[in-house]
Amino acid sequence: MGNTLQTPPQSLPPQQQPQQQQEIAGDEENQEFTCEICIEPTSNADKKFTNTNRCSHPFCTDCMIKYIRVKLEDDNVGHIKCPAFNCDHTLDPLASLVGPSLFVRWCDVLCEAAVVGFDKCYCPHRNCNALILNECGGNVKKSNCPNCRRWFCFKCKRIWHAGVGCEESAVLRDRNDLAFGMLVEQKNWMSCPRCRHFVELLEGCKIVKCR
């Protein structure tokens, strides 16, 4: 019997391949990159911004936070695009990147953009002012605020005026407001800075404190 020549394996055993792939991925994450905004090279992986697998343009986190802040506070834009040239991918709001206060602002701007197409108003009741949308369409009049559970007129944006039309209610309200304003001036009443209710000072200092 002759000797049999064995050909050496051309690839690593299967059990070693995943480990090799992990090492390659780790090397890529630790590679030095140059931010396309400040043009500063850095090898700190924690400083590299990642757009949740949408695009992989290299930016440092400091530049991205400044870029996002300008878009939110100066331009009032919620759907913020990647700053890379000719990139149309948008950025996902990340609280871990921008911090809690800027993240809340980001979410608020996105919500405002989402309700632009709806007929909307704010609850006219004191201490509420909740934003209410007419999602069903049509001529809505008597409405119930989902926040304070009180009734109001969606058409004229005033407190509900049972048995009285919107125009008549506005006239009566204007007359009552004028008469009340004259009474406030005559009685020298003061309004609470918190609840805005008027009170009459009988004695003591002029500091008004809400109960």
Automatic annotation (TrEMBL):
<keyword id="KW-0863">Zinc-finger</keyword>
<dbReference type="InterPro" id="IPR002867">
    <property type="entry name" value="IBR_dom"/>
</dbReference>
<dbReference type="InterPro" id="IPR017907">
    <property type="entry name" value="Znf_RING_CS"/>
</dbReference>
<feature type="domain" description="RING-type">
    <location>
        <begin position="35"/>
        <end position="86"/>
    </location>
</feature>
<dbReference type="GO" id="GO:0061630">
    <property type="term" value="F:ubiquitin protein ligase activity"/>
</dbReference>
<dbReference type="GO" id="GO:0008270">
    <property type="term" value="F:zinc ion binding"/>
</dbReference>
<comment type="function">
    <text>Might act as an E3 ubiquitin-protein ligase, or as part of E3 complex, which accepts ubiquitin from specific E2 ubiquitin-conjugating enzymes and then transfers it to substrates.</text>
</comment>
<dbReference type="InterPro" id="IPR031127">
    <property type="entry name" value="E3_UB_ligase_RBR"/>
</dbReference>
<dbReference type="InterPro" id="IPR018957">
    <property type="entry name" value="Znf_C3HC4_RING-type"/>
</dbReference>
<dbReference type="Pfam" id="PF00097">
    <property type="entry name" value="zf-C3HC4"/>
</dbReference>
<keyword id="KW-0472">Membrane</keyword>
<dbReference type="InterPro" id="IPR044066">
    <property type="entry name" value="TRIAD_supradom"/>
</dbReference>
<keyword id="KW-0862">Zinc</keyword>
<keyword id="KW-0833">Ubl conjugation pathway</keyword>
<keyword id="KW-0812">Transmembrane</keyword>
<comment type="similarity">
    <text>Belongs to the RBR family. Ariadne subfamily.</text>
</comment>
<dbReference type="InterPro" id="IPR013083">
    <property type="entry name" value="Znf_RING/FYVE/PHD"/>
</dbReference>
<keyword id="KW-1133">Transmembrane helix</keyword>
<dbReference type="GO" id="GO:0005737">
    <property type="term" value="C:cytoplasm"/>
</dbReference>
<protein>
    <recommendedName>
        <fullName>RBR-type E3 ubiquitin transferase</fullName>
        <ecNumber>2.3.2.31</ecNumber>
    </recommendedName>
</protein>
<feature type="region of interest" description="Disordered">
    <location>
        <begin position="1"/>
        <end position="26"/>
    </location>
</feature>
<dbReference type="Pfam" id="PF01485">
    <property type="entry name" value="IBR"/>
</dbReference>
<comment type="pathway">
    <text>Protein modification; protein ubiquitination.</text>
</comment>
<keyword id="KW-0479">Metal-binding</keyword>
<dbReference type="InterPro" id="IPR001841">
    <property type="entry name" value="Znf_RING"/>
</dbReference>
<keyword id="KW-0677">Repeat</keyword>
<keyword id="KW-0808">Transferase</keyword>
<dbReference type="GO" id="GO:0016567">
    <property type="term" value="P:protein ubiquitination"/>
</dbReference>
<feature type="domain" description="RING-type">
    <location>
        <begin position="31"/>
        <end position="211"/>
    </location>
</feature>
<dbReference type="GO" id="GO:0031090">
    <property type="term" value="C:organelle membrane"/>
</dbReference>
